[in-house]
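JOB MANIFEST
job_type = single_chain_structure
chain_count = 1
residues = 574
[input]
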Amino acid sequence: MAEADYDWVIRGGTIADGSGGDLIDGDIAIAGGRIAAIGQVSGSGREKIDARGRIVTPGFIDVHTHYDGQCIWAEELSPSSSHGVTTAVMGNCGVGFAPCRRADHEMLINVMEGVEDIPGIVMTEGLDWDWETFPEYLDKVAAGKRDIDVAAYLPHSPLRVYAMGERGAARAVATDNDLAMMRQLTADAMRAGAIGFATSRLSIHKTASGDAIPTFDTDIAELEAITSGMKDAGAGTFQVVLDAFVGWDKEYKVIERVIAASGRPATFTLASGNDAPPRWRRVLEMLEATNAAGGVAHAQVMPRPIGLIAGLELTVHPFVLCPSWAKIAHLSIPEQVAAMRDPSLRAALLTEDFAPGHPFNELARNWRWLFPLDDPPNYAPPAAMSMAGQAAARGCTPQEVAYDRLLATEGRGLFLAALGNYENATLDSAHEMLRHPYCVPGLGDGGAHYGAICDASYSTYLLTQFVQQESPLQLGLAETVHMLSAKAARAVGFTDRGTLHVGGRADLNVIDLDGLRLRLPEVVRDLPAGGRRLHQRATGYEATMVAGEVIRRFDQSTGARPGQLVRGAGYRAA
């Protein structure tokens, strides 16, 4: 048998190369983890994929994840890798596990448990903590095996506590010495390969104890000093979750001042309210002004409603903080359902107000924006399907509608709490933001919110909701693939991925667009200590390749683990 010319040849696909340009029909040859040829390839490959009737895209870039822990204890970074993602950026929102002294392990677990809904026991069992500094943490990540590539921000909360001790956790004002130390540590992290520095100022980000996180409402001068460490190193992107609740005119100044002080790019979270005035358009104007003035900034936008998934098996449900629920909270779901059929308990749960608790819990009783989530999942339901809408039609309370749904589904029914990005119960605002030149899709939060959010499937949703379906909001395939690949990559500083071109990385997907479907989120128990998490699968991903190795075939893992740590721009690759 003649020796093959290439490792792989993908034949006859419709190629969306990530640039946003015209689609082309042709072949892709791969050798040594790189793309060797695109077009009409005459040579043979050791392996072949028949892509006729399929689309071929670059691997997607997931710019907002929290795999900081999962990348230590697991080899598959799902759900992201189940949805065409080949590079995930972690350390967002300023939470993570390095730098960290031994004495501060419990504090960081408390922060991560509260902000990102990762059970403390999962982190206690899953992390070996054989690092202290951030460069040591990066080396730990680089030494591990995983299916896709990862890159990491230096997170603000552990940095602050590492530099300031208990004063940092207590949100004390940083001294000049504190600022100098954090600036130096930031420069060191960038030189070791961090892709930037991340923080959160969001008021509803709380620790598991209910306290404000160490970075909440930090003085902007501290952020200027820290990000000057990126300036010293000549690398890094500033990522921030701003507190829109205090007003964008006030909070956007953080972006402006940090860019002015550091000269580095910035990226931040942007969403529309459901029924508030469309303030997001003012943010787009400010974003345009920043870029016109020579700065670089991008907003991260969720392509569907930002929200929670609620259910009896999950962290949040419509009765979780009712005083009477505490009587049955310890029971199994079948036992809870049996107890809920008792008229006296029903009467109590339908009339009780919520007791005080974590802010996220209360979101499951926003009846106007709480919807049933069934199979196939509908993330853009009509307003009449909300608990409030159904209650009005039935002449009862929203509590009764939610209660009856739980009984009718034997406690397995799920709810979508659409908390934002669903202005007037439409996706119009998300569509407009996504098409803006300085907005990229993101906020999937893979690796976090294990019992409340499963949005890492947003790449599949973009393709099914906005490309497959004919509607006034329909997007072109080339444009959408560009959003998920090159546009996202450039927003966080990647220049070596996001497009398909000769000589480029062989990170790509072969997708049956007609057969692409999202499945209903499901609970799996594969975390350390038997912890549970939400996972969401899809059909239609026929092959996903990282550095020339197929990591998934027909929606199943192949066991290949080519994923590496992506070191920051200007520094060596792992």
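[summary]
The first strand starts at residue 6 and ends at 15.
Confidence is low (pLDDT under 50) at residues 570-574.
exit_status = 0
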